[in-house]
Amino acid sequence: MPRFGNAAIAAVTVASLCSGAWLLRSGAETHAPPQPSAAEARVDPRAQRSAAPALPPSPPDRIRIPSIRVDAPLTGLGLTATGSLDVPPAARKNLAGWYEAGTTPGEIGTAIVAGHVDNADGPAVFYGLGALKKGAAVEIDRRDGGVAVFTVDAVEVYDARAFPDAKVYGASARPELRVITCGGGYSRSTGYQGNVVVFAHLTGSR
């Protein structure tokens, strides 16, 4: 499949990840997923200078985030008719997806991974994403047999009405990764009100 970057993705990218059906059944007060603190949103300037050499393009097969116990297969995602990123099937709660028309994780540019925070039965693959800390490792198994290792620069939460498209999806001169799920406030009538976004850059490979 030819790759076109991320310019086509609309701000409603992960709206269909965000119904919060489980919280409707079990109560939001007890079971709401963790949200990032303000401290995790500040990027350390030193992180801008410590990037590993880019890797050749290769589709990803798996994502691991050891500090929050994520170990999940990846499926390719396209765009819906409205221009939003499609999402993995909600029933497969340990499945994440990557935007396969864009950058592959490890090559120069901004690669996009998205997954559900929960489904009707409970927590899903990225339920703990808001608890991730700066400096944590994100590992991507690639189809060429290699592993791209990213380091988290920041973890932020945005209201869906003020989602910063250019900051999240914009081009980069080095290999970067965004991992996205639902977050922010929660309404029983409309679900989650925003998105948690992890910003990371390539720091190694093996």
From TrEMBL:
Gene3D superfamilies: Sortase. CDD domains: Sortase_F. It comes from Streptomyces resistomycificus. The lineage of its organism: Bacteria, Bacillati, Actinomycetota, Actinomycetes, Kitasatosporales. Residues 29-64 are annotated as: Disordered. Keywords: Hydrolase. One of its GO terms (molecular function) is hydrolase activity. The keyword Hydrolase applies. Pfam families: Sortase. This is Peptidase C60.
